[in-house]
Structures are given as structure tokens and as C-alpha cells.
Write a structure and sequence with these properties.
Blueprint (H helix, E strand, L loop, with lengths): L1 H10 L10 E11 L2 E6 L1 H10 L6 E10 L2 E9 L5 E11 L5 E9 L14
Parallel strand pairs: 1-6
Antiparallel strand pairs: 1-2, 3-4, 4-5, 5-6
Amino acid sequence: MVIEDYYARLDGPEPLSGLDLLEPDVEFLLALPGKEVTGRGRDDMRAYVAGRPAVGRRHNVVRRGSDGDLEMVYGFITEQDGRGTGSFTSVVLLSPDKKIARYQSFFSPAFNLFPLPEGEAA
């Protein structure tokens, strides 16, 4: 799935390589606690990705589904110590070229469908 490839790149050593999977005029909404980040185009997404702190977060997809040009995933975010910090639900609409044309993601630290990992024992 394209969305899983995007997250793998975002979490990898070259996060900006994920932009290669986006259409030049991609539109997006990232619903985060207390704010929404919206934008249009790779430059807007580049600014968002480049502005994120480098703290070693990882997207862990636990459920996925697709229907034609629509891909959906549910997962949780873990920190470097393996501790889960919240869950996300993301949906993308793919272009005919199989690139992300529209991207919508919701993150919540407060509500999770599945228990979050507790991380390494202290």
C-alpha cells in the first residue's frame, strides 16, 4: 500500500523521501490534538515534515484496507523506547499514477481502539 510506504519513508533515515509518493498538488489535513494542519502541494508538506522534531517516532500500522483508489490504515505511534503515545487513522486518495492526491490523518493520544505498547521496562 502506498500509505504504508509513505510512513516507512517518513520514519526512515530520509523522511523527505516520502514526498516522492505525493502528487505535486497534494492536499492534506492532519488533525492533531488542539490544532489542524492543512496544506496544498509538496512544498507545504515538506515544510511540515521538515519542521517536526527528530525524536524517533514510528508509525505502526495494525489494520489496513483499500477499495480501488482509496487506502485506509489504523495504527499507533511509538517513541524510541517502544512506548505508545497515541493512535492514528489515515486515509489517502490515490491518483491514476498511484501517488497520493489527498491525505487525511487523525491522531489522538486519548482514545485508542487497541491497547498501546508500554515500552521497555524501566
